[in-house]
Amino acid sequence: MNLKCFDKIIVHDLTVKKHSITAKYxxxxxxxxxxxxxxxxxxxxxxIKGLEEIAGLxxxxxxxxxxxxxxxxxxxxxxxxxxxxxxxxxxxxxxxxIFVNKIVTRTGLIKEEYIPRENEISVEDAEPKxxxxxxxxxxxxxxxxxxxxxxxxxMSSGGKDSLTTYGILSEIGLETYPFFLxxxxxxxxxxxxxxxxxxxxxxxxxxIWSNIDRLFAFIERNMKIVKPYYWxxxxxxxxxxxxxxxxxxxxxxxxxxxxRIGNISxxxxxxxxxxxxxxxxxxxxxxxxxxxxQDFDKYMTKWFEKRGFHIKQWSPIRPVSGLIVxxxxxxRYPVYSSCRQAVTQHT
Length: 347
Known about the structure:
Elements lengths: L5 E11 L3 E10 L2 E11 L8 H10 L9 E11 H24 L26 E8 L9 E9 L3 H12 L3 E8 L4 H15 L4 E5 L1 H10 L8 H4 L11 H7 L1 H6 L2 E5 L13 E2 L2 E2 L9 H14 L4 E3 L7 H11 L1 H4 L10
Parallel strand pairs: 1-4, 4-5, 6-7, 6-9, 7-8, 9-12
Antiparallel strand pairs: 1-2, 2-3, 3-8, 10-11
C-alpha cells in the first residue's frame, strides 16, 4: 500500500503585518512545484509581543494532516522547541485517525485502489511517513500574557454547541468573547446569521477571515489518492483533512493576548460520555474527532501552560449529549436559539 502523494510539503515565507499573517505552502512531486498562500486577516491591529511566534503556530497546523502522504514536511522558519513537540505529537495522533476514518473507512472520496484490504492492515500503516525538517528551533520566547480567568473566548460557529456554551458562560458571569472564523468555506454560510446577531448584541464578538478551507482544497485536489471532483460527491466532508480546530484557536491568539483572555471554550461533537478507548486493528483512534475530545483539551491546557500562554482550553458541555444540548439551548437560551441556522449540525 502506497499512500504517498508528494515528495515534499514546504511551509515558508512567513510574513507578519499589522492586520494580517501569511505563509506559503509549496507541494512538490516528480519535480513539479505548486504553491498556495495561507492568509489570516484581522479587522483590528494585532501588534503584540510574540506575534511572529504565534504566526508560525497558525501557519504550521494545516501540514499536520499530511504526515501519511509525503516523504518530507519542511518548516522553513524559526519555531520554539515546544511548537515542534506540538506538531509531532499532533501529526502522529492525526495520522492514525486519518488512516482509520478517512482511508480504511470507505467515505467514497478515496480511490478504491488505495484502500487497503482489512486482512493486510498493520499498526505501522497508520504511522506518519514524513520526515519533519525544522529549519531552526529556539527555546526562547517573547510571548507575555497574564490571563484573566474571568474572561473566556468561545469558539463559535452558530451551531447548538457553541451557542449553548456562550449562554452558559455568560449566565455564570464570565466576560465572553464570541470568536468566529470565516474560513472561506461552506461552514461560514451557517455561521453568518449567528455572527451578525452576536456582533449586534455583544461588543466582544470578533471575526477573522482566513482562506484555510481553500488551502485544504488546493492540497487535496493534488493528491493522487483522492477522487477527481470529490466535492461533487460530498461538499461537507474533506477527503483527508481532520485536524484544524487548533488552527482556529491559534488564529485568535493575537486577540487572546491583546485582551488577556484566560479560557478557550469549545463545543463538543465528541459525544460519547463513557471515555472508552477505541482501537481498530490495534490502532488507537478517536473516530476523527481527537481535536474535539477531552484528551485534546487536557493536552492543550498543559501545552499552553508550558508555552507561556497559561490558557485553559475546555468545554462546559462535555459529556452532555447533543440532544440535551439542543434542549438546553431551546429552553434556557431561546434568544440564542432563534439566531441559529436550523440546518447546521456544526459546533
